[in-house]
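can u do me a favor
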């Protein structure tokens, strides 16, 4: 009997199954194991957790109880120390956690360190060092070009030669669930003689995917495409809230500033790149030859992520990340090609994810075509841009190992009235 049980337990671990009951549609099966930071009402300390099914494992406490490798980094109140350890440590800890949740003989030792997700408060998972936002979707860039520059070429001459991006504000990165106060700023409609100051009247969301840097780099040292996964730990979801009217008046000639810097929301769970190996795909065909440092033929990092955007609970878009023209590896290579250094906790985002079909557009400015085609909602409501009280929720999923479907969690935010 003991021999048969041991065989069953080994088979469970090898098959990717867990002794923990995981709901069939859970975004966090054993194949996922994303990292975040949580606290509870009983214990207000912020600590590193790993999501599995409907639970969170207190990774630091479990590691300390077993004297596991990297226990000190896992005992920190944020992920930065763990992120800085590098790919070898990331893989080692992931393998250790997978074994603990796949081996029923470990159940008793692990269960005491589990918390029900509903009993936890999730926090910003890492201390953000720098934030860069890109503009990597050809469909999004084309749509905006047609909306904002009708009658002209929608893509600017540099767009297919390099991933266009801008430096954002790291200090206003907030975790999912944080209220978003409507920003104020200068706005000047085309028919106005002068600008006025007040609350944004064209507040928008942008459905994006973010990438979290773990291992830093030395100043003056570019990061080649082949070293992408040596520096980037994992993936999160991003909503880069945008005040389109403020942005339109300020962005010439230096680009976004106050129209973007008031808040950027990220999901609380960081999914390791190792969990997304089955989601890797080739990028779409390139129509412009790439310079050697951006030629990713040997290192493709397209990802088959399916995003969903809900406005007040209603599904309004399904943006496909697999169609992004520029990959995360190219974004990283380009951003360091001048020798700019990386820091642990750097975050760079893809820019709005949009597809070729109307229902795949990842922002309201596209869905409403600049405000002239309102988005219809159940109950007779419609939107061109966001109103106070509106809540936007962005989720995503991807193919995982052994046929599993894994989730990236959710980034959610509700619009609050302006303070003025």
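np, heres the sequence
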């Amino acid at each position: 009997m003991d021999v048969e049980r041991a065989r069953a337990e080994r088979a469970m671990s090898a098959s990717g199954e867990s002794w923990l009951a995981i709901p069939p549609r859970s975004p966090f099966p054993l194949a996922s194991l994303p990292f975040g930071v949580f606290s509870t009402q009983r214990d207000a300390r912020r600590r590193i957790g790993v999501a599995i099914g409907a639970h969170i494992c207190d990774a630091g406490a479990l590691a300390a109880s077993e004297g596991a490798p990297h226990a000190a980094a896992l005992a920190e109140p944020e992920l930065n120390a763990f992120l800085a350890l590098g790919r070898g440590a990331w893989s080692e800890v992931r393998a250790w956690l997978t074994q603990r949740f796949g081996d029923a003989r470990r159940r008793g030792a692990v269960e005491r360190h589990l918390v029900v997700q509903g009993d936890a408060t999730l926090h910003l998972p890492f201390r953000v060092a720098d934030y860069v936002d890109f503009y990597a979707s050809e469909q999004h860039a084309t749509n905006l070009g047609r909306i904002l520059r009708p009658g002209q070429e929608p893509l600017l001459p540099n767009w297919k030669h390099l991933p266009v991006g801008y430096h954002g504000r790291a200090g206003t990165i907030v975790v999912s669930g944080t209220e978003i106060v409507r920003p104020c700023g200068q706005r000047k409609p085309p028919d106005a003689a002068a600008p006025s100051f007040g609350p944004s009247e064209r507040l928008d969301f942008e459905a994006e995917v973010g990438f979290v840097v773990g291992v830093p780099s030395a100043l003056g040292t570019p990061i080649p495409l082949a070293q992408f996964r040596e520096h980037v730990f994992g993936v999160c979801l991003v909503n880069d809230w945008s005040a389109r009217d403020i942005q339109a008046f300020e962005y010439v000639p230096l680009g976004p500033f106050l129209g973007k810097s008031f808040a950027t929301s990220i999901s609380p769970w960081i999914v390791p790149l190792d969990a997304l190996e089955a989601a890797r795909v080739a990028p779409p065909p390139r129509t412009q030859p790439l310079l050697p440092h951006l030629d990713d033929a040997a290192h493709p990092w397209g990802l088959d992520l399916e995003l969903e955007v809900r406005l007040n609970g209603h599904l309004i878009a399904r943006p496909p990340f697999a169609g992004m023209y520029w990959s995360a590896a190219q974004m990283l290579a380009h951003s360091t090609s001048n020798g700019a250094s990386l820091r642990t906790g750097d975050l760079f985002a893809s820019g709005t994810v949009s597809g070729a079909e109307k229902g795949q557009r990842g922002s309201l400015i596209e869905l409403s075509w600049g405000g002239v085609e309102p988005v219809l909602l159940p109950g007779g409501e419609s939107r061109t841009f966001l109103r106070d009280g509106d809540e936007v929720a962005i989720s995503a999923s991807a193919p995982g190992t052994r046929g599993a479907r894994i989730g990236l969690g959710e980034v959610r935010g509700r619009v609050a009235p302006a303070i003025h």
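The chain is about 20% helix and 25% strand. hope that helps!!
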